[in-house]
Design brief:
CATH topology of the largest domain: Phosphatase 2c, domain 1
CATH superfamily of the largest domain: PPM-type phosphatase domain
Number of domains: 4
Distance between the termini: 98 Å
Largest sheet: 6 strands, antiparallel
Shape: elongated
Number of strands: 31
Radius of gyration: 43 Å
CATH class of the largest domain: Alpha Beta
CATH architecture of the largest domain: 4-Layer Sandwich
Length: 838
């Protein structure tokens, strides 16, 4: 306490080192400010509370107030020599004046001595006979009502200075206790009322005004002396720095006029207030830094930045980002100009709900003219401070918002525009506004805002770069995965790709299906060892190679042999596993070869039994010098083949046998569709590993399921023709007859023309073996012509006088799709026609 006085100014005395000067003097007391919520827990703990009670803010917030505050019944002992008067605050136990529900019925005050942790080496020497870890505390408690969570305001002061005065001058002052009085009872009542909000925690204008009004109505805190003197208390914590500086300048001016300046008063709080103001700014920045950057998600980061400053630093915070930043794209270097589009990505405020949302909705994009403070901020990269937005300035700013008048929202407010930049690039800016009733932004706020924006800008830039890189990675991965049609010849296919959850969203797992001659389908699943872009790039090369070699109709074992040679040429660091299967729906079998991959699961349609196919394991692709073997497995229509990578069935620390068993069991469960069956398998494996406490999956997953429907014998027709040109007409006739039998009269004419051209070429180029013609009816009409010539035909550009070269042009013009491939005995030329819808 700096000063005290009695009501009638009869003997002059010193309280805490000062001298009474008249009725207008007040007791300046460094106050602790504590707010208790409706559950009896501390929701605000000021710097003064930490000093008096010795408990840091982080340890006090959320704790029961009864364990921290000096209230009746909570003290281990009370010194009988020090009279104690007061009531128990809200939620802290019964006491005189308390309401029936345990709440405080009216304001209460008291004085207590308590044990304070961390005070054994306190800066203030204790009085004689007192333990060093004891504190003499004055407290005032105010019950609060209203819509907010605050239910009790407790003010406390350290009375050790007063106690020393009592020991020194007990004849004059017998005791000092806290009390209440109407603030209008004192001169300068309005000044007292104005200072009171400075000690409250950071909150909206409406909340602080509500609390101040209740405090003033219930009674202003005063010090009551034994001589019936009452001194109003003026708080010291939270007083603006400029007030302290002005007071020191006035004291210095008076001292200069009266004579040499006096020695510095060690109890002067001016410099301490300066230090406290700076420290509180640093604490605020540290607190904000802890609240932002908890995620690399750009949207979440934007919300964190906006909410970190409202309401403690500002009442309204609007965040704008470059259009390219929001889209996760790069943008040209250089200073933004009047054509740069800025997206409003967040608006936080303490006004009534909807007031700002209707006028400046989130998501709007706009440029800013050169005369605005926003343009100045984003071009210079420096904060722009507008102490008060005048009517003229408000009109200039509002002119940018078409059909919406924002002048009532901004006029008269203090505005600070801070740039969000990183690496000397402006990513956006924040518009901070304070209510007219609140103190204007000052130079220290400008510095604080700049530091806040610098930290937020770096966090946003990290989130932006992560979002951009994630988008690039997902685009790369998506472009490398095939678009497999759900229906192939004689089978239905469903696939799933799940990126790794912890090791990145880019991996080397892939699946594929390739159409082969003879209505066959190649099914492939592979896994490049490792993760990241290198694995994805290797995966793309191997997948392309598999497609190319599959189109050549290489046998499975030979295809893996060629793929292994390719991996050796690409580099000795590349390793991959691969499972290659060829399904023949006409013959009803699977031809499979394995290169170090986990075996597939075959679910039998007859009895619903599932089994892991016993295949020669082989070595991974890239090892080199290892033979590959292929096996044939007979299948029935309706059987299902499940192929996957090890990321689905294996996690670190778990037995892969458990995953394979779960795969077999879940694959056998009936499902409404192929997609549902894939989802059931993925869920079952996730539940199994989660129940075993193995955590989340870390590897990426490729899953391919094929239902092997087969092609019925009635949908296949095959003929053999001798090497005689006269057999071309017979080939046309049998094709025409078969298509009429199948009910496809619209395909007769194009099919006759194509078969005639292909049989003519086959008869001309064959050596000794007869020509074979086969028709397969399915989703398409497949026509195949086989001969024993190994030279593949090519499409030629025939001139008007050329005798040859027009046959394949006719086929290319009529067919939906056509191609050639080598077979074990020669070649096959095939073409497809699309049947008309029935």
């Amino acid at each position: 306490m700096d000063r005290g006085t009695d009501r009638d100014a009869s003997p002059s005395r010193s309280v805490g080192g000062g001298t009474a000067t008249g009725p207008a003097d007040t007791g300046r007391v460094p106050l602790a400010v504590v707010v208790v919520d409706r559950d009896g827990l501390v929701s605000h703990w000021s710097t003064g509370a930490r000093r008096i009670f010795g408990v840091p803010r982080d340890a006090a917030i959320g704790q029961a107030a009864i364990d921290l505050l000096p209230v009746s019944g909570a003290l281990p002992e009370v010194d009988e020599d020090l009279p104690y008067e007061g009531y128990a605050p809200y939620g802290l136990g019964p006491g005189p004046g308390n309401s029936r529900d345990g709440g405080l019925g009216h304001p209460a005050a008291g004085r207590a001595r308590l044990t304070v942790p961390g005070r054994s080496e306190g800066a203030v020497p204790p009085p004689a006979g007192w333990e060093r870890n004891r504190a003499d505390v004055l407290w005032w408690a105010y019950p609060l009502v209203g819509p907010g969570p605050e239910r009790l305001l407790v003010l406390a002061a350290d009375a050790e200075g007063l106690h020393r005065h009592e020991e020194r001058d007990r004849a004059t002052v017998e005791r000092i206790v806290p009390g209440f009085a109407l603030h209008t009872d004192f001169p300068g009542a309005e000044e007292l009322a104005r200072k009171l909000p400075e000690i409250l925690p950071s909150m909206s204008v409406g909340e602080s005004a509500r609390i101040v009004a209740q405090v003033l109505e219930l009674g202003y805190p005063v010090l009551e002396f034994s001589q019936n003197d009452r001194v109003p208390v003026t708080p010291d914590w939270g007083v603006a720095r400029r007030t302290a500086r002005r007071a020191r300048r006035e004291r210095a001016a008076r001292a200069s006029a009266e004579g040499p300046p006096p020695a510095e008063d060690p109890d002067d709080e001016g410099e301490d207030l300066e230090h406290v103001a700076v420290r509180e700014r640093l604490e605020f920045l540290n607190e904000v830094s802890g609240k932002i950057g908890t995620s690399l998600d750009l949207s979440r980061t934007i919300v964190e930045v906006s909410r970190a400053v409202v309401p403690r630093f500002t009442d309204v915070a609007g965040t704008y980002l470059r259009e390219q930043v929001v889209a996760g794209e790069g943008f040209p270097e250089g200073v933004p100009d009047t054509t740069t589009m800025w997206h409003r990505v967040a608006v936080e405020h303490t006004d009534e709900p909807g007031r700002w949302d209707d006028v400046i909705p989130v998501g709007e994009a706009m440029p800013f003219p050169a005369h605005t403070p926003f343009f100045q901020c984003m071009t210079t990269g420096e904060p722009v401070l507008v102490p008060r937005i005048s009517e003229r300035a408000g009109h200039a700013i509002a002119s940018q918002f078409e059909k919406r008048d924002i002048r009532p929202l901004i006029t008269g407010r203090s505005m600070l525009v801070v740039p969000l930049k990183a690496r000397n690039v402006v990513l956006g800016f924040m518009v901070l506004l304070r209510h007219p009733e609140r103190a204007e932004f000052n130079d220290m706020d400008r510095v604080t805002g700049a530091e806040l924006a610098a930290r937020a800008g770096l966090v946003l830039d990290n989130a932006r770069m992560y979002t951009y890189q994630e988008s690039v990675a997902e685009t790369l991965q998506s472009s490398m995965l095939p678009r497999i049609p759900p229906r192939m010849a004689g089978c239905d296919i469903a696939t799933r790709y799940l990126p790794g959850t912890l090791l990145g969203r880019v991996g080397g797992d892939w699946f594929d299906s390739v159409k082969l001659p003879g209505a066959r389908t190649a099914l492939v699943v592979g896994d490049v060892m490792g993760h990241g872009l290198n694995s994805a790039a290797m995966m793309g090369q191997l997948r392309t190679a598999v497609q190319t070699m599959a189109a050549l109709d290489l046998p499975p074992a030979q295809l893996l042999r060629n793929l292994d040679d390719l991996a050796q040429r690409l580099g000795d660091t590349y390793l991959a596993t691969c499972l290659y299967a060829v399904y023949d729906p006409i013959a009803g079998d699977l031809h499979l070869a394995n290169a170090g991959h986990i075996p597939p699961v075959l679910v039998r349609a007859g009895d619903g039994r599932s089994e892991l196919l016993d295949l020669p394991t082989g070595a991974p692709i890239g090892v080199g010098g290892v033979p590959f073997e292929a096996v044939r497995v007979p299948v029935e229509p309706g059987d299902r083949l499940v192929m996957c990578t090890d990321g689905l069935v294996e996690v670190r620390g778990a037995d892969i046998g458990v995953g394979l068993a779960t795969l077999c069991e879940s694959a056998a469960h009936p499902a409404a569709s192929m997609d549902d069956a894939c989802d059931s398998i993925v869920r079952a494996l996730a539940v199994t590993f989660s129940a075993a406490g193995r955590g989340n999956r870390k590897d990426d997953v490729a899953l391919l399921m094929a239902r092997l429907n087969g092609i019925a014998p009635d949908d296949v027709a095959e003929w053999t023709f001798p090497l005689d040109p006269l057999q071309v007409g017979r080939a046309r006739a049998v094709v025409r007859e078969q298509l009429h039998a199948w009910g496809l009269p619209r395909l007769v004419h194009p099919a006759e023309l194509m078969v005639g051209e292909l049989v003519t070429n086959a008869v001309r180029h064959s050596h000794s073996r007869p020509v074979t013609v086969r028709l397969v009816r399915g989703d398409t009409l497949l026509c195949e012509v086989d001969d024993d010539d190994h030279e593949l035909p090519t499409l030629l550009d025939a001139g008007p006088g050329d005798e040859f070269g027009r046959g394949l042009r006719v086929v290319s013009a009529l067919a939906r799709e056509w191609g050639t491939s080598r077979t074990g005995r020669g070649k096959c030329v095939w073409c497809e026609l699309t049947p008309p819808r029935r």
